[in-house]
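Troubleshooting: if your tokenizer reports a length mismatch, compare against these two reference records.
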Amino acid sequence: MERKLMSELIRWKDKKGRKPLLLEGARQVGKTYLLKDFGKRYFKNVAYVNFQNPSTELIDLFNGSIEPKRIITMLELYLNMKISPSETLIIFDEAQEIPRALTSLKYFCEDTPEYTIATAGSLLGVFLHKDTSFPVGKVNRGRGQENTKWRLNG
């Protein structure tokens, strides 16, 4: 199972015209573990941001402009690290907790496709924020099925 999941993520990473990845599924099925392990294996750096209990600083980051270059600059300051398009996997965990983080994926897709960005969130949380401008057509979606079997679409 692990090799299949990693193979799908590698295929997504190497895909021409890759979009940000939204990995959805029930809580506690391994979404975060999978993305962190993928980042550790196939990238020089991982810029991990957990929105579960966000700081005021993190909330404010997405209350302003959600232009990707601004977000990248602010994340570099927040995480105290350099984010390189070719060497860094950006992970937004529990992204449903800050709806504008989900909305920003549209602009990452359109304006800065060179960045590799993956988000994880529970299906329930994603659907609770129906007022959010969801980036339809601007993300590849992976959905958990039967516990930890994943399928990447798009």
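Reference record two:
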Amino acid sequence: MKVKKVLVSQPKPSSEKSPYYEIAEKYGVEIEFRPFIKVEGLTAKEFRQSKISIPDFTAVIFTARTAIDHFFRLCEEMRYTVPDTMKYFCTTESIALYLQKYIVYRKRKIFHGDTGKLEGLLPALNKHNREKFLYAVSDVHKEDLNVLDRTGINYTKAVMYRTVSNDFGPDEKFDYDMLIFFSPAGIQSLLKNFPDFNQENIKIGTFGATTAQAVRDAGLRLDVAAPSPEAPSMTTALDLFLRDETRNN
């Protein structure tokens, strides 16, 4: 069965120049964007149950913009004014620059890595190892905490937001020929929303090894996997799949 309608489990691209739109026009397929998961912040009451007191810390580690949003949201909900002396350590410059949404950037002590990983922050963390660090994370964070443990810094992991299933409504159509996922949580959400899901001719594509494994663990068939040498991105993998399908038909 030829693929005519594809569901990409991500938010709709903000730019009309997204490769997905080019693929849709190139092969005459309909592509819809609908996240299977969403981020939900912990309430101040829930966060207090962790017994973590934000005023006890002198520095914060951020690995995502979402973590920044929920850190300052919780501070506001708990009526805590973050002092000007707070230091911020971010895994990338773009995450560091995002802090401008909440603070006067040039007047703060902000440090960032260049690799996008915690390892890239090690020089800065070691230089400021007398600080008491709060590490703001989600409930499904992937970072290797051994990196922080090796530094010997004083840090506390604080879960401030979580990933939950973005449930489908009873009247919401599910008539797709292909589903594309980007995290194991997306597969879990699929099975939660449709416990009797029968794949049959529906194609499944994934990005990332852990997502591909989640498909196999669920007893489903994996039809497209990225990244690969031929397809470093999900859009490239989709393009190649639809090209081959067109040729074979």
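Descriptive notes for reference record two:
- The mean pLDDT is 92.
- The longest strand covers residues 154-165.
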